[in-house]
Amino acid sequence: MSSDAAIKVLLLGAGALGSIFAWRLQEGDKAKVTVVCRSNYSAVKSKGFSIISEAYGKHTYHPSKVVQSVEEAVSDGTVYDFVIVCTKALPNFDDNSKVIAPAVNGTNTTIILIQNGIGIEEAFCARFPDSPI
Fold first, then answer.
1. How confident is the model at residue 53, as a pLDDT?
2. SS3 content of the chain, % helix, strand, coil (to 5)
3. How far is CA 17 from CA 1, 49, 74, 127, in A?
4. Spatial distance between the Cα atoms of 65 and 91, rounded to a whole number of angstroms
5. Do residues 84 and 8 lie in contact, with contact meaning Cβ atoms separated by under 8 Å?
6. Cβ distance 59 to 36 under 8 Å?
7. Could you tell me which Pfam families the record lists for this protein (predicted)?
């Protein structure tokens, strides 16, 4: 990747925290952020995220791309530099390492976990031993 090329980011977990991270990453056009939205897909696709922040003011943020699944995010052949997981850490119910698998390209993809909990990285380390986490 050249130094002036925008990095490609895939964000899973577009709630309050995830939407703020996506917005700040995309600010200044240094990153192209694809956001996976589930229940809020239609609203975000048509209206974007409405952000009201004491630090940054009021904004409407439109991600570079809004998709309903990780599979859809990679269906056009996009290779992501970073995959950010901002979902609730519920390892007894969901395995987000499996969910993001189609978007992880070995050492070319860095996985960032923005979750609470202890030992949340274990499933990711086991599934992606060559990826920076």
1. 87
2. 30, 25, 45
3. 28, 12, 23, 25
4. 28
5. no
6. no
7. ApbA (PF02558)
